[in-house]
Design a protein that fits this description.
Elements lengths: L1 E6 L6 H20 L6 E7 L3 E4 L4 E4 L2 E2 L8 E4 L6 H7 L4 H9 L3 E4 L4 H6 L7 E3 L5 H7 L4 E3 L4 E4 L2 E4 L5 H13 L1 H11 L23 H12 L7 H8 L3 H12 L3 H19 L4 H7 L5 H12 L3 H8 L2
Parallel strand pairs: 1-2, 1-6, 2-5, 6-7, 7-11, 8-9
Antiparallel strand pairs: 3-4, 10-11
Helix pairs in contact: 1-6, 1-7, 6-7, 11-14
């Protein structure tokens, strides 16, 4: 039997704590129905017996504090809400215990932006991490030594599991259940809780927001100009001329500041504009593609699918009114 410690972090969301508790306990019920022994011993633990959550909106009473837990097998870090820097400071009392338990063999399951707290302990240094697309830029600024992953919602490295994107933590819990108890139990949990087990990527949900907390005035001006002209056709050289900077140096600065090359940034802005047109406009897909400056319809469809995992037609079916 694995002992699970779900951390009642201050300013965590009650839903992520309770969902983890309910799903893992329900798996024990499934095992009982099959005449098998329960696998998880699940409890919620905190720094104190009574913890305020979600800025005092909820309070939770726990049976044990972390000081009572000398050995645990798996630690669940819930989602945090609000000011991340403040939340890290508020919860720093958990850090030493978390680090000690990890080095003593405990696995760590970090739910979405709970990874801000995990990264603050240093345990994610030079490791892969998935994070919610809307928090990516802030996370990169705070933890530049963590390797952020874009193309999947789940990472699994050295006994640490992370996920990106709101309620995708439900998929992460299914993933962990599958590792512990096999595919059949994971599928059963998926069916019972009606969780789409095949969701693998954040791309269909992502809204592109360029990294702008960098202080480079020319790069920032070029970002704003690109974003304000999504239907214009221009080259990287034309942008460099407009900014009065040399191409080689500027491209290096742009990549360092934004995480994208200039050409990639232009692509992503045009894809984001196209998404909005597909959601609310009446033009055909081909008309929209021509509007954003592409003459090669197939080439743009490939670019669009690269960033959304959907064709323009499928995107319209999914998100239009």
């Amino acid at each position: 039997m694995k002992h699970i410690s779900i951390l009642a972090l201050k300013d965590a969301t009650i839903t992520s704590i309770d969902s983890s508790y309910q799903i893992l306990n329900r798996v024990n019920d499934f095992l009982r129905y099959q005449g098998r022994t329960p696998f998880y011993s699940v409890e919620i633990v905190g720094l104190e017996k009574n913890i305020q959550l979600d800025h005092g909106l909820y309070s939770i009473h726990v049976k044990h504090t972390i000081s009572d837990i000398k050995k645990t097998d798996l630690i669940v870090i819930p989602l945090l809400c609000g000011d991340f820097a403040k939340a890290l400071k508020t919860n720093e009392g958990y850090a030493d215990w978390l680090i000690s338990q990890y080095h003593n063999g405990a696995e760590i399951v970090s739910l979405c932006v709970g990874s801000f707290f995990l990264a603050s302990t240093g345990l994610l240094k030079n490791k892969k991490c998935a994070i919610h697309w809307a928090a990516r830029n802030d996370f990169q600024v705070m933890f530049p030594d963590v390797h952020l992953i874009d193309d999947t919602i789940i990472t699994d490295e050295s006994g640490i599991y992370t996920c990106g994107g709101g309620y995708s933590y439900l998929n992460l819990l299914l993933y962990v259940i599958e590792k512990h108890l096999g595919r059949e139990m994971s599928v059963l949990a998926s069916k019972m809780f009606e969780i789409d087990i095949e969701r693998k990527s954040q791309n269909p949900f992502m809204i592109f927001m360029g990294q702008k907390k960098h202080g480079d005035k020319e790069v920032l001006s070029s970002q704003e100009w690109i974003e304000n002209n999504p239907t214009e056709t221009f080259t990287v050289d034309e942008i460099c001329t407009k900014m009065a900077v040399g191409r080689r140096t500027f491209e290096r600065r742009f990549k360092k500041c934004t995480g994208n090359s200039v050409a990639e940034y232009i692509q992503r802005v045009k894809v984001e504009y196209t998404k909005k047109q597909l959601e609310s406009g009446r033009k055909t897909v081909n008309e929209i593609i021509y509007d954003v400056g592409y003459n090669n319809i197939d080439a743009f469809r490939k670019v669009f699918k690269k960033h959304t995992d959907l064709s323009p037609i499928d995107y319209r079916r999914k998100y239009s009114a």
